[in-house]
């Protein structure tokens, strides 16, 4: 069986609709036919300051949302990155194969570092994409299902795999980004030309999986729409309406053109009311299941520890091969 791998940072109290539609929904579909590896990249989270108790809480909350959204821990390998030391170990080797200039060109690093000021940005943030390459390459996956914003990182992992293979002999599978066009970028409801992101300046543009339905309804009803009245998909001319249509389409299974026909002659308000209802209906059981899982954190921790043991069985042989090829002496 072919393999997929992916992860989402535990850096917010809840996943948002971009994470859900851009990634989680595809993971759940793909785990049916692929051997799936899903993890929570807590090592990545500390590239920016985190409150320790909050990080632990968010790691569990993220795991609970994976499962509540449909990740099956019996079928997929589900774990927390810091419990599998091979990630950090392979990252070091890959750090030593990455050019300083190459790492400097990563657009997410440039964005985040310029927001923080280059002096306060950490070396960890700089080397973030290389740790991500290690996450991926350790498991030899064929595909990495992510949103559009992660494409460059998956491509870096492919470049590093190729470089390692060329220098030390065939070791890594070259992973491909699996990006679902229609949902690869969900936009901020208040600022529909920017992607929905937990680091947005205002929470009003986000739909969070774990928010109260009243909050979700209000946010969708207050979404920025465009001049004019026509409900039509036009990314450049009507970014607000187009974003709502894209969300509607992916959640309902109806195509955008079916929705355009259905809403012909109707007002933006109608679309928003129906979309709010659909989103709440879709997310309510996910939220309920996540809360149920979070009511027993010890059980969740046990499940994640079991997942980490499974992950180490997959990761250890790759790391051993890498170490041997690089010329490190065998430990035993
Ligand atoms: P993160 O935590 O920012 O996002 C998790 C997933 O959600 C997708 N996503 C979106 N998709 C559509 N529209 C949006 N507005 C939107 N916002 C986020 C992301 O593309 C991603 O798929 N670096 C990664 C985490 C990571 C990882 C990995 C991913 C670490 N190691 C190895 C894959 C493989 C990140 O910060 O994603």
Automatic annotation (TrEMBL):
Coiled coil: none annotated. Its EC number is 6.1.1.2. GO terms for molecular function: ATP binding; tryptophan-tRNA ligase activity. InterPro entries: aa-tRNA-synth_I_CS, aa-tRNA-synth_Ic, Rossmann-like_a/b/a_fold, Trp-tRNA-ligase, Trp-tRNA-ligase_bac-type, Trp-tRNA_synthetase. Keywords: Aminoacyl-tRNA synthetase, ATP-binding, Cytoplasm, Ligase, Nucleotide-binding, Protein biosynthesis. The keyword Cytoplasm applies. It holds the Pfam family tRNA-synt_1b. The keyword Aminoacyl-tRNA synthetase applies. One of its GO terms (biological process) is tryptophanyl-tRNA aminoacylation. L-tryptophan binds at residue 135. ATP binds at residues 9-11, 18-19, 147-149, 186, 195-199. It is found in: Cytoplasm. NCBIfam families: trpS. Homodimer. Belongs to the class-I aminoacyl-tRNA synthetase family. This is Tryptophan--tRNA ligase. It comes from Arthrobacter cheniae. The gene is trpS.
